[in-house]
Amino acid sequence: MRRIVGQRGDRPLYSDILGRLVEITETHLTVRGRTGAVRVPIAEIHRAKPVPDRRRLTPTESLEVAAAAGWPAGERDQLGDWLLRATDGWTMRGNSALPVGDPDLPLPDAVDAVSRWYEQRALPPAMSVPLPLFQRIDDELDRRGWTPMPLTLLMTARLADLPAAADPQVTLDASPSDEWLTAVAGRKGPLPPSARGVLTGVAAVRFASLRDPAGALLATGRGCVADPDGRWLGLSLIGTDEHARRQGLARRVLGTLTAWAMEAGATDAYLQVEQRNTGAVALYEKLGFTTHHVYQTRVLPTG
């Protein structure tokens, strides 16, 4: 709405208010904006109009939503548009809030609500904030003393620009074998029972295994297409046994998953990697990935 707030000579002065209409009476309108509720006399309203309930997502927000769908947390809840995720503490992606869109609360109240949600589950409150789009949220968490974790790159590539070839030594399964899970646990740490739900909680998902001629498992990878438009191949858990590295095995796993995703109709790929993992970043850049944006995960220190 546009509100008359004063007069300068013979011209009125205006102030704009954007928010959710929460009350209307014969004399006043009450609108809840980002800074709280504002009660405006009807006589001061120059004009008002409805706007779409939800604005269109930016490319960064759309990609973050697609990535969240590809890594479905064991427990999910909403705070307005914000996504709250908990998975027994396994992986930061599965145990942090994703502040995309509008929480329908002033920012300080929204941060408090996130803290309470995680504390009720005996988990440290955490948020993964896409930057620079939501710098204001990161600044608020920084002001409150939330500890920054290493920056994570969200990298993307067109599937047509990636090596796409099904390798006869790479098998793709609809569910992970115990051996596959053991290999991943050896690199990422023990997997709780809820981890299987995260890994298999997507309809279109494949678990890649590359074996040597004797049948020994050398490399793994996971690929999924989880966004509603079927555009994005999400790549994760691409890893090679230490004794078999620098032999191009990760490229072969990625190529097989890429060929599968192209057959499924996907056109682009994304992956998430810590910025400090320079070896992996260099490999993905060599394959054709570029950084779309970064996100900063912050955790509220216990106590």
Automatic annotation (TrEMBL):
Q: Which InterPro entries match?
A: Acyl_CoA_acyltransferase (IPR016181), GNAT_dom (IPR000182), Rv0428c-like_C (IPR056935), YpeA/RimI_acetyltransf (IPR050680)
The protein's UniProt keywords, in alphabetical order, are: Acyltransferase, Transferase
Q: Kindly give the CDD domains that the UniProt entry links to this protein.
A: NAT_SF (cd04301)
Keyword check for Transmembrane, yes or no.
Answer: no
Instruction: Report domain N-acetyltransferase positions.
Output: 149-303
Q: What is this protein called?
A: GNAT family N-acetyltransferase
What is the native source organism of this protein? Dactylosporangium maewongense
